[in-house]
Amino acid sequence: MVKLRDHEKMKELWPPKFEGPHGFWDQEHPGEEWGDLIQVKWVEPNRKGEQPFVKLIVHWDNVDFRSVICSEDTAFLKRLYLTLREHGIGKTLEEVGNLQVDF
User: Fold this and answer.
1) Residue-wise pLDDT tens digits, 9-65
2) pLDDT at position 75
3) Domain range spanning residue 80?
4) Within its chain, how far is the Cα of 39 from the centroid?
5) Is residue 84 part of a domain?
6) Are the beta carbons of 98 and 4 closer than 8 angstroms?
7) Looking at residue 76, what is its pLDDT?
8) What is the pTM of this model?
9) What's the pLDDT at 25?
10) pLDDT of residue 29
11) Is 88 exposed, middle or buried (0-12, 13-18, 19+ CB in 10 A)?
12) According to the model, what pLDDT value does residue 23 have?
């Protein structure tokens, strides 16, 4: 078992880079592990040959921010998605990073 943030395949992926609305007055996500994970989706692209990805929505300071996690290892990505969906929603990103995983 290893913390999600310390998993060898998560080194370049965690913490995710979040973005929000792109207006002049819009707030930016501070980076790192700020906010609460409120939604996780498995996305199969419509275009042939594109890889699936995991979409995350985080709520921080009354704003929703989005990010995607991509990996060519689809089996790993699917297990990550299932773990986040089952054990991460409603938790802070710090708590999500501390999740113990064995995949």
Assistant:
1) 999 999 999 988 666 566 788 889 999 999 999 999 888 888 999 999 999 999 999
2) 96
3) 2-21+31-101
4) 9
5) yes
6) yes
7) 97
8) 0.89
9) 61
10) 86
11) buried
12) 60
Contact 55, 40 (CB under 8 A): yes
Q: Is residue 26 part of a domain?
A: no
Q: How many domains does the chain have?
A: 1
Report CA Rg, the chain.
14
Residue 62 vs residues 15, 28, 36, 84, 89: alpha-carbon distances, Å = 20, 12, 11, 22, 17
| Edge-to-edge strands, sheet with 53-60 | 36-43, 53-60, 63-70
At a CB cut-off of 8 Å and minimum separation 6, what does 62 contact? none
List the Cα angle 75/37/94 in 5-degree steps.
90
Indicate whether 37 belongs to any domain.
yes
Q: Is residue 83 part of a domain?
A: yes
Q: What is the pLDDT of residues 77-86, one digit of tens each?
A: 999 999 999 9
Contact (Cβ atoms closer than 8 angstroms) between residue 99 and residue 90: no
Q: Cα(98)–Cα(47) distance, rounded to whole angstroms? A: 34
